[in-house]
Write a structure and sequence with these properties.
The chain folds into two domains: 3-57 and 303-393, Aspartate Aminotransferase, domain 1, CATH 3.90.1150; 71-301, Aspartate Aminotransferase, domain 2, CATH 3.40.640.10. Helix content is 39%, strand content 18%. The chain is built from 13 helices and 17 strands. Helix 3 runs antiparallel to helix 10 (286-301), helix 4 (81-92) runs parallel beside helix 10 (286-301) and helix 11 runs parallel beside helix 13. The longest helix is centred in the C-terminal third of the chain and has 22 residues, at 304-325. It binds pyridoxal-5'-phosphate (PLP). Residues 104-106, 109, 138-140, 190, 194-195, 223, 225-226, 251-252 line the site of pyridoxal-5'-phosphate.
Amino acid sequence: MKTGEIIQLSDKYVMHTYGRTGLAPVRGEGVRLWDAEGREYLDFVAGIAVNSLGHCHPAVVRAVQEQAARLMHVSNLYYIESQARLAELLVQNSCCDRAFFCNSGAEANEGAIKLARKYAKQKYGPERYEIITAEKSFHGRTLATITATGQAKYRQGFEPLPAGFKYVPFNDLDALRRAAGPQTCAVMLEPVQGEGGVNVATPEYLAGVRELCDRNGLLLIFDEVQCGLGRTGKFLAYQHYGVEPDIITLAKALGGGFPIGAMLAGEEVAAAFKPGDHASTFGGNPLACAAGLAAMRVLLEEGVVQNCARVGEYFKEKLTALKNKYSFIKEVRGLGLLLGMELAVEGGGIVDRCREQGLLINCAGGNVLRFTPPLVITMEDVDRALEIMDGVLSTM
Ligand SMILES: *Cc1c(COP(=O)(O)O)cnc(C)c1O
């Protein structure tokens, strides 16, 4: 099909839940995408932090092909080798002891919310159920996770919402101190907020949150669905801070492009879930876990995280140089290859113009250009992207 035909068919039959732009990629390799007409794009969106190894990484493709031909799915009534191996890898590379597998970030956070409530109610009593989250956070699109998300626009029109969530400004420890009460069971945060405009937690804040949680018997949940798995230049974002959470949620990059999510917890907290308390039909199936295992091995064993730290620093320097050139750029921020450029104007037009010039970027929260390229990009890729951006910005 031609691009125009794909768009027409999609617009006719698919629910209009997405603000899509006029591009229909049909093939990808590394940091590049192509449409049906053979136009090439440099992909600095990468599925919004999903394709961290680039498109169609050969190790992931091979693992998926082999596993698909051998065994795609069995029930969690039985033991699954690739699931056990992926759990082992995630535990060995984090502060947690056990993993639960699901299919998305929202599901991982649903699991975390349920686990935190179950743990707190068992340990302290039924009145402990409230979860405090941050303004400008993003935790997913299910009813519980839009309620956990500290942005009103995601909740409007879907009331009544589940009870037991409260929001505080991000990076404001006093506000959190005031908000925490006898009903609170957990604090849920993204160490680097993605969707909310690439806001990086300060070290003092996360250290203070950990201390507050310890003092009051609250669980600390880090939503690392976007900022985890190498994206910030460390395997997990919390490792920049030396502050360990009780529960970690993962998804996006976990399957190297294949859908899979995970929720990790320490032994004592994980033990609050008994057989039957939580489940997912597809969660942790052989195919998803084979993809995840292949992707995580490449990420950890082939210098991808180190590349992200190195190229991310270079990219940030170059973006900062652009900021000094254009007065409508307010701030450049982020960690590793989760970078944001806050503008004094709306960013949508710039995103469109960049796409027309063959560069895919994204805009978060209206006026923050967000860059989440594959972690395997080179400095030459960054130079090419900046050349296109500079050209677009110079016409603004
Ligand atoms: C994308 C995202 C989610 C939701 O993940 P889905 O797979 O879309 O359900 C949750 N939390 C964060 C931080 C995210 O970036």
